[in-house]
Amino acid sequence: MLTTLFHVPSRIAGLPLFGMGLLLAVWGAATAVMLATAWRRGRLRETLVSSGVPLALTGAMILWLLPALDDGRGVPVRGYGTMLLAAAAAGIWLSIVRGRSAGYDGDTILGLGLEVFLWGIVGARLFHVIEYHEQFFPPGRSLLEGIPGVLNVAAGGLTVFGSIPTAALAAWRFAARRGLSLPRLADCIAPGLLLGLAIGRVGCFLNGCCYGGPCDLPWGVRFPPDSPPWLDQMTRGLIAAGTPGNAWSLPVHPAQLYAAVDAALLAWLACAFTPLARRDGQVFALVLTLHPLSRFLLEVIRVDEAAALGTPLSISQLVSILLLGAAGGLWWWISTRPPRRPWDGTPDGPPAGPGTPGRGL
């Protein structure tokens, strides 16, 4: 467990770094260069549509969020947040590599990746905040006082299933704006999403969240005092405060690492299945089928989520069942579609007509 990697100082050479400081100036200069380049290429409107919201959110974070995170020693760089950024970079990289064969240039996949990543984070955070609202807005804490905690994503607290509706909506809007095939795009980025999930789960391990139950196997992991597993075991009476030899938690399953290995294997399987797919959307449908199954089983090992809605199942297991139903419907819909165009680098683009094979939705 390594919650905080280091602190970024709030001032450099006496000048503020965050807020109205050096970082905002760098952001402004980089944004100006990007927009000027897009204007020279005649793609200013397209760039504003695809990147305007991410740019605005980045500027807002520099101006308001980062100063609010300063704990007196600077802004902490969390292990979870670092792995989250690494996950986004790795997922986009793999999607760009695959995109060349599917008929998409790097700029297209990069724009899609940024939108899907940011809106996926929004959905995952909202789901987590709603599920654990008492942690963010306990009695006596106002809505305004709880907002900094809600926005502090780098400290941990994302529920993967919450990202599905917002990320899917972002992908649909992106494909519709550019006249691209959404199923083909989904096949392109599906393994990258899983690769990002695998790296993100390592961040969960560093943060101590998403932990498993007691483990007597050689690879059982102990977490330090005040970590989520330690606090949970204290609450359950499994360890007593101040007991010598029990300063750390009892060994638990490293469920985060199990999930990381699971996501990495599914990413490999999705890549291996790609040349065997006969219709656009089948790679994504495979992911939508297998990931809920593995997540349902992993939830048996995890103990951080209570039973939900009067059932013996966790909220993630219930969502997994719903996703399996959606996967069945997706497989049926895909079976009605024409065979896909080969992944030979031929550019995807606006549909030429209602009967054009492999184009549009």
What is the H/E order?
EEEHHEHHHHHHHHHH
Structural class: mainly alpha
Q: Let me know the average pLDDT.
A: 87
Number of strands: 4
Per DSSP, the total helix count is 12
Q: Summarize the main sheet.
A: 2 strands, antiparallel
Tell me what portion of residues adopts beta-strand conformation. Answer: under 5%
Domain unit count? 2
Distance between the termini: 44 Å
Write the layout of secondary structure elements.
Layout: E1 4-8, E2 11-12, E3 15-16, H1 22-40, H2 44-69, E4 75-78, H3 79-102, H4 106-131, H5 133-136, H6 143-151, H7 163-178, H8 182-207, H9 228-236, H10 255-273, H11 282-301, H12 315-335
Antiparallel strand pairs: 1-4, 2-3
Report on the architecture of this protein:
By secondary structure, the chain is mostly helical. The protein has 2 domains: 1-7 and 14-73, no CATH class; 76-233 and 246-335, no CATH class. Helix content is 61%, strand content 4%. It has 12 helices and 4 strands, in the order βββααβαααααααααα. A two-stranded antiparallel ribbon has the order 1-4. The chain has a two-stranded antiparallel ribbon with strand order 2-3. A hairpin with a 2-residue loop joins strand 2 and strand 3 (15-16). Helix 11 (282-301) runs antiparallel to helix 12. The longest helix has 26 residues, at 44-69. The two termini are 44 Å apart. Mean pLDDT is 87; it is low at 351-361.
